[in-house]
Amino acid sequence: MTIYYSLTFMLLAAEMVTFCGLVFPLPHNVRKKVFGFLSESPIVAKIAYGLKISFIFVAILFADALQRMFRVTAEAELAKQNGTAHTGGAQAENSFAARKFYSQRNTYLTGFTLFLSLVLTRTFYLILDLIHTQEEYAKLKQATTGGSGAKGGNKEKEIADLKAKVADLTKKDRDFETLKKQAAQQAAEFDRLATKYNEATGANSNKRD
């Protein structure tokens, strides 16, 4: 395997390890810190930029490997049609099979590397969106719970104020009834005294006559 295909295989292995790390179940706080670091760190951004350039070269290798695989397949079909597939002996057949195997291997290697890079990118942003959605949901739930608690507290305060006002009005009504009774008693007493006074003054007048 040439050096650039060896590097492509190492990149594919790194992508597989990274994918396992992304989908590994972690606590929410830990995952939030990890993905926050990956999305905000300038070092990670530079590494991601370098990987994008490397994926461009992998795409070129994929196109070249795909072209070679098609060419080897076309040569095999042409040899079968012309009946020259077995004229070169076992050594020629082995050479042709090796060429076909290497072309297919390189195509699959570069193709899976490109495909997994797309899967990794999409998975990363999906998990990041999921974390943001969970944060927004937690804030909304907290705000809703706090609002409900505040509304409940306000209602209890209003009920307590109304009870206090009712008690105050009841007390004032009771005091007013007491004053009415006292006023009625005083009026009756005044009428009784006035009657006695009138009777007394009337009797004195009769005596003088």
TrEMBL record:
It comes from the Eukaryota. The keyword Coiled coil applies. The chain crosses the membrane at residues 7-27, 47-66, 108-128. Residues 1-139 form the BAP29/BAP31 transmembrane domain. Signal peptide: none annotated. GO terms for biological process: endoplasmic reticulum to Golgi vesicle-mediated transport; intracellular protein transport; protein localization to endoplasmic reticulum exit site. Pfam families: Bap31, Bap31_Bap29_C. Residues 157-205 form the Bap31/Bap29 cytoplasmic coiled-coil domain. InterPro entries: BAP29/BAP31 (IPR008417), BAP29/BAP31_N (IPR040463), Bap31/Bap29_C (IPR041672). Keywords: Coiled coil, Endoplasmic reticulum, ER-Golgi transport, Membrane, Protein transport, Receptor, Transmembrane, Transmembrane helix, Transport. Belongs to the BCAP29/BCAP31 family. May play a role in anterograde transport of membrane proteins from the endoplasmic reticulum to the Golgi. This is Endoplasmic reticulum transmembrane protein. It comes from Mycena belliarum. The lineage of its organism: Eukaryota, Fungi, Dikarya, Basidiomycota, Agaricomycotina.
